């Protein structure tokens, strides 16, 4: 069958997303500019001035979007920076945004609709345009600093274990000569099968240490959440076969989150170079938030890959890295 048409309603006020490293460098620049070398110092200075000027005049939205999950040190200073840039406007959690997209796709699949209609509002608890206007009318605004979920040590250890497992599989893929297209299909096919496998192992008691049990319990909760929503749409109780059929359909695989996450993961899983600790987090941020953004500033390798795959055109997003000064300046000039 033909792929369903994906329609994305973007905000009338442009949304600008900043990679964690950009916010970190702005924080360093604010504290001690001399710690940054040229040309990075000048680039950060220019971007910082543009973001603050345009956000504080209500012409862009620069939200906090779970970037703080990567921040282990100088967290207070980092949070002060993103509060200044975002005016306290936050996205929903990445998991909630992904679920919102997934559930819209489920409904379109069940109704056999030709289109899946997504909106920037799917990424926020309330309309960020109205929230920004309210904030700009106040003399002060309050924000809440979230703790690191499960603690920094647990998160670091879990990330290290995940990274080691990914790199083991990457080395096998490289040794077998697996190409991008093959790995991309494997990523799509493995999504629901891996969740079901983990749940089955949990039910029969096939778990390793506490961390393994924790991961499988999380997979089980996620599966039952999706089954519950599937039942809400279709009326079918515990219809795991129907849910798997949806996951295998183009309504799921053509969703921006699935399309991007599988593509980006395939890239790192066939790369001769080791996967870096920040890569899985970058993939989660890009695949969840880039399609809703108007300007998405990430690092150079991701920018190059995304633009080479024409994702900038597919999702009508300006994708840049901090060195694309002309492109960034042109973007802000277009909304001046």
Write the layout of secondary structure elements.
Elements: E1 5-9, E2 16-18, H1 20-31, H2 40-55, H3 75-86, H4 94-110, E3 115-119, H5 128-136, H6 152-176, H7 180-203, H8 210-234, H9 240-248, H10 250-253, H11 256-269, H12 279-289, E4 295-298, H13 300-308, H14 311-314, E5 318-321, H15 325-334
Helix pairs in contact: 1-2, 1-3, 4-8, 7-8, 7-11, 11-12
Structural overview:
This protein has 336 residues and is mainly α. The chain has one domain. Helix content is 60%, strand content 6%. It has helices at residues 20-31, 40-55, 75-86, 94-110, 128-136, 152-176, 180-203, 210-234, 240-248, 250-253, 256-269, 279-289, 300-308, 311-314, 325-334; strands spanning 5-9, 16-18, 115-119, 295-298, 318-321. It has a three-stranded parallel beta sheet, with helices on both faces. It has a two-stranded parallel ribbon with strand order 1-3. Helix 11 (256-269) runs antiparallel to helix 12. It is globular. The N and C termini lie far apart (44 Å). The model has no long low-confidence stretch (mean pLDDT 87).
In a nutshell, what does this entry contain?
The chain is built from 15 helices and five strands. The protein has 336 residues and is mainly alpha-helical. The strands form two sheets. The chain has a three-stranded parallel beta sheet, sandwiched between helices. Strands 1-3 form a two-stranded parallel sheet.
């Amino acid at each position: 069958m033909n792929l369903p048409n994906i329609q994305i309603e973007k905000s009338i006020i442009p949304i600008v997303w900043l990679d964690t490293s950009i916010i970190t460098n702005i924080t360093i620049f604010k504290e001690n500019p001399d710690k940054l070398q040229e040309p990075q110092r000048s680039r950060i200075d220019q971007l910082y001035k543009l973001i603050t000027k345009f956000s504080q005049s209500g012409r862009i939205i620069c939200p906090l979007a779970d970037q703080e999950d990567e921040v282990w040190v100088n967290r207070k200073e980092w949070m002060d920076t993103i509060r200044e840039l975002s005016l306290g406007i936050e996205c929903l959690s990445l998991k909630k945004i992904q679920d919102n997209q997934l559930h819209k796709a489920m409904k379109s699949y069940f109704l056999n609709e030709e289109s899946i209609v997504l909106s920037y509002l799917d990424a926020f608890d309330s309309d960020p345009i109205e929230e920004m206007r309210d904030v700009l009318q106040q003399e002060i605004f309050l924000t809440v600093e979230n703790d690191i979920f499960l603690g920094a040590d647990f998160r670091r250890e879990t990330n290290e274990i995940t990274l080691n497992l990914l790199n083991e599989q990457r080395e096998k893929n490289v040794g077998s000569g697996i190409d991008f297209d093959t790995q991309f299909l494997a990523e799509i096919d493995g999504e629901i099968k891996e969740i079901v496998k983990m749940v089955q192992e949990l039910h029969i008691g096939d778990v390793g240490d506490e961390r393994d049990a924790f991961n499988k319990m999380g997979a089980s909760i996620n599966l039952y959440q999706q089954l519950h929503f599937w039942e809400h749409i279709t009326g079918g109780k515990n219809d795991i076969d129907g849910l798997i059929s949806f996951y295998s359909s183009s309504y799921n695989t053509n969703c921006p989150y699935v399309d991007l996450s599988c593509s980006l993961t395939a890239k790192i899983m066939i790369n001769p170079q080791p996967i870096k600790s920040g890569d899985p987090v970058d993939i989660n941020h890009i695949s969840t938030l880039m399609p809703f953004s108007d300007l998405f500033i990430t690092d150079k390798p991701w920018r190059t890959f995304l633009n080479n795959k024409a994702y900038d055109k597919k999702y009508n997003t300006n994708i840049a890295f901090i060195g694309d000064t002309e492109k960034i300046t042109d973007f802000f000039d277009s909304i001046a």
